UniProtKB/TrEMBL annotation, chain A:
InterPro entries registered for this protein in UniProt: ATP-dep_Glu-Cys_Ligase-2, CP_ATPgrasp_2, UCP005522
The species this protein was found in: Pseudooceanicola batsensis (strain ATCC BAA-863 / DSM 15984 / KCTC 12145 / HTCC2597)
Domain of life: Bacteria
Domain Circularly permuted ATP-grasp type intervals: 73-450
Full protein name: Circularly permuted ATP-grasp type 2 domain-containing protein
Record lineage: Bacteria, Pseudomonadati, Pseudomonadota, Alphaproteobacteria, Rhodobacterales
UniProtKB/TrEMBL annotation, chain B:
Protein name, as recorded: DUF403 domain-containing protein
Organism expressing this protein natively: Pseudooceanicola batsensis (strain ATCC BAA-863 / DSM 15984 / KCTC 12145 / HTCC2597) (Oceanicola batsensis)
Domain DUF403: 1-309
Top-rank lineage group of the source organism: Bacteria
Length: 474, 313
């Protein structure tokens, strides 16, 4: 792609500094590159000491690694954010309405807007949830919406993370690091606060407690344990919220409640923020081999004795095959046109779409319907012939397993490199909290950046880094 | 607090204490070997024995040499009490109980781990030994300092302290258990140079030389040494001191939780029956017999604490 094909969030398409970056650029020009490089190293040292690491699956030595941090912030104007957050709120409300409908009357199928097989044949659909009413009617207590940008006013939703979105600890630590390293930047720029996220999370979760819970519900975070790639985040959030971090073997069903084993006996839990997949949640009801979950928790849940956040079965809403129907879903439940666009998507299960995809593999991105983390995908324009030939075979063998999208010219934001400021592709994951009373969107989110020049893969497991994300008060 | 968290705190601080105890013994060995003529390998054998590591070392089929002994005590992953394994154990447990620790304590223990991994990445030569040991000692001291300076005095702190003092009592008792014979009052060898080395080893291995001199002057007497290490409540590694601390912390827990568990009865029994008497009566009972009894009572106390506070089930 040529340079002017790509929208840079600092320089636009034509090397004209965009307004939100004015003050930052002014500051940057006054800084010694050597000092900034030292600061960059200092940031890494800070992260290492704090232990902000993630474990990479599939590596021989299950080592902890740091996600690289870049000191140039990604800056969004207040007006841009206002537009975005309206679109996000609309989408999240639609997702919750959709989940309720899918597990109750299935009106959207009756209306013909969504083919029945999309639900019936979908592994992410959880029959155990049919007819269940989660406390407060909330399914997705925490959502991360992945956005990409291609132009001044053009954002697309790349993915909805409605199960257990991760990354919020990086959003918080990135800000903390920037505040410590460059306090002067926050004196000149008026940046909206993200630091309230943990207390917002706690009150949002508490507001979703079952009716019998009383005025200060007991909240706990359920983690698969210290070997999980996101363990740092689980511990971080529990710590910041001031609640217990529990594992499956700390929990038991006692007198019809889910309770944790404390030094003083069993104490019941009202709201469980689980970071364990549905399948592992309850060995009695789901995967019998799971050692991560709590036997019988689903029975307590169905009886209204505990809030599980996010609700089991929400995966149906962020399934990539369902994704392609999101515009219809938003319209069906809100009666409004979607404010945020979907990336045009070919469902390879449909013969016409498959034919088109097979003819145009060199230009498309092909993804597994159930994949995540940037694994098992093909990026046509940068793939080798061999990769493409292999994918062609896979597509023919199991077409329903794939979707395809055009390769978007993702926007870039500069990173600070040896050569000074160099553009790199980014995406954005804002975090959304849902309670019966409100939808709360933290201003900012996690900006992931592909550190390799020209690369479009921002996933941390594949060499991506992160940036602090600023939303300015206009 | 979760039972698992109590367990993790207890082990985090046990491992930390163990790392310090092992590194103290390495320094003792180094010091003794440097200042004595004759076979230093024999001295290292004695040090390994004092550390309770001679058996496991011999099982590894290596000859006892200075280098092999130092490496075994500092870095061997086959040795569950080496400085490196202990610090890794402390940090692993700290991750487990991350939410119970202050930011400062976590950073200190993580920093300690990073330093240990770095300075113990390869064999430590004799010349570098003092510097390496110094760095590790400083790092573990930081964890201790952060603990005292930033942690609430609540049940979290109690479990941390109980782990610390159980490990420490166990360490001191083990050193006494393998070295008891040099403390027996025999007319024959008192004052001989062999005994002097042995006594120095014992005192150094519990960082007690200065304290002992302050209390008793420059004359080493085996009875005084035994009394100092077992019964002296001013000496922070004596059995009486450690068991007293465990009791204090258990009493605090009882007040907090409003319960009176079995472990409190046990700790009171150990203290009242064995640690509030004079050293002559200990010798009358038989020093070795006495120490073995106390050692097994301390082991039983640890097991009872795990049950009382639901560490596992």
């Amino acid at each position: 792609m040529k340079d002017e094909d790509i929208f840079d969030e600092m320089w636009g398409r034509h090397e004209t500094l965009r307004q939100p970056y004015n003050l930052f650029k002014h500051w940057f020009d006054g800084e010694e590159p050597a000092r900034l490089r030292a600061k960059q190293r200092e940031a890494e040292e800070l992260f290492r000491l704090t232990g902000i690491t993630f474990n990479v699956y599939g590596r021989a030595e299950a080592e902890e690694r740091l996600i690289p941090f870049d000191i140039v912030p990604r800056i969004i104007s207040g007006l841009e954010w206002q537009r975005l957050s309206r679109g996000i709120e609309q989408r999240v409300r639609a997702i919750n309405a959709f989940l309720h409908d899918i597990y109750h009357g299935q009106e959207i199928i009756k209306s013909g807007r969504l083919p029945e097989r999309m639900i019936a044949d979908n592994d992410a659909f959880l029959p155990h949830m049919i007819g269940v009413n989660p406390p407060g009617g909330v399914y997705t207590h925490i959502v991360g919406i992945d956005l990409v940008r291609t132009d001044d006013n053009q954002f697309y939703v790349l993915e909805d993370n409605a199960r257990t979105p991760s990354g919020v600890s990086y959003m918080l630590e990135n800000r903390e690091t920037m505040l410590q390293m460059f306090p002067e930047l926050f004196a000149s720029n008026r940046v909206k606060r993200v630091e309230t996220y943990p207390s917002d999370l706690r009150s949002s979760l508490s507001a979703c407690a079952p009716p019998g819970a009383g005025s200060s519900p007991t909240v706990a975070v359920l983690t698969p344990g210290i070997y999980n790639s996101a363990y740092f985040e689980h511990a971080f959030l529990a710590d910041q919220m001031g609640v217990e971090l529990v594992e499956g073997h700390d929990l038991s069903v006692v007198d019809g409640r889910v309770a944790m084993r404390t030094t003083q006996g069993y104490q019941p839990i009202d709201v469980l923020y689980r970071r364990v997949d549905d399948d592992f949640l309850d060995p009695l009801n789901f995967n019998p081999d799971s050692a991560l979950g709590v036997p019988g928790i689903m029975d307590v849940y169905r009886a209204g004795g505990i809030t599980i956040a996010n609700a089991p079965g929400t995966g149906i809403a962020d399934d990539k095959a369902i994704y392609s129907y999101m515009p219809e879903i938003v319209e069906f439940y809100t009666g409004e046109r979607p404010l945020l666009e979907n990336v045009p998507t070919w469902r390879c299960s449909e013969p016409d779409a498959l034919a088109y995809v097979l003819d145009n593999l060199e230009e498309l991105v092909v993804k597994e319907v159930h994949g995540s983390g940037g694994y098992g995908m093909l990026i046509g324009p940068t793939a080798t012939r061999k990769d493409i030939a292999e994918f062609r075979k896979k597509l023919r063998a199991r077409p329903a397993n794939y979707i395809a999208q055009p390769t978007l010219a993702l926007s870039t934001v500069p990173v600070f490199s040896r050569a000074g400021l160099s553009p790199r592709h980014v995406d954005l994951r804002p975090f959304v909290l849902v309670s019966p009373q409100k939808v709360n969107i933290t201003p900012g989110g996690l900006t992931r950046v592909a550190l390799k020049k020209g690369s479009l893969v921002v996933n941390s497991s594949q060499g991506g880094g992160t940036k602090d994300t600023w939303v300015l008060e206009d | 607090m979760l039972g698992k968290t109590a367990n993790g705190l207890y082990w985090m601080y046990r491992y930390l204490e163990r790392a310090e105890a092992t590194s103290r013994l390495v320094e003792t060995g180094q010091r003794i070997a440097l200042t004595r003529l004759g076979s230093s390998d024999a001295e290292w054998r004695s040090i390994l024995q004092t550390a309770g590591m001679l058996q496991s070392f011999e099982a590894s089929d290596e000859e006892v040499t200075k280098d092999a002994a130092i490496d075994w005590m500092l870095r061997s992953r086959a040795n569950p009490s080496s400085v490196l394994t202990s610090i890794e154990g402390a940090r692993q447990n700290a991750r487990l109980v991350r939410t119970a620790l202050t930011h400062e304590v976590w950073e200190a223990v993580n920093g300690c781990y990073m330093t240990a991994r770095e300075v113990l990445a390869r064999k430590v030569g004799e010349r570098d030994l003092p510097k390496v040991m110094g760095e590790i000692r400083q790092r573990t001291a930081l964890v201790r300092g952060a603990t005292h300076g930033t942690m609430m005095r609540n049940d979290i702190y109690n479990f941390a302290r109980i782990g610390t003092f159980l490990e420490r009592a166990d360490n001191t008792a083990r050193i006494l258990d393998v070295k008891y014979y040099v403390l027996l009052p025999t007319v024959m060898s008192v004052g001989s140079s062999i005994d002097n080395v042995q006594w120095e080893t014992i005192l150094r291995s519990v960082s007690a030389r200065g304290g002992f001199r302050m209390t008793y002057g420059n004359d080493y007497d085996p009875g005084d040494i035994a009394s100092f290490l077992i019964l002296d409540r001013r000496m922070p590694r004596s059995l009486a001191f450690c068991v007293g601390k465990i009791r204090d912390n258990l009493e605090h827990l009882c007040r907090t939780y409003g319960t009176t568990p079995e472990s409190l009865a046990r700790v009171s029994y150990i203290q009242d029956r064995y640690l509030t008497r004079d050293i002559d009566s200990v010798f009358d009972d038989g020093l070795h017999q006495y120490i073995q009894t106390v050692l097994s009572l301390i082991g039983g106390l640890g097991a009872q604490i795990e049950i009382d506070y639901r560490f596992y089930e």
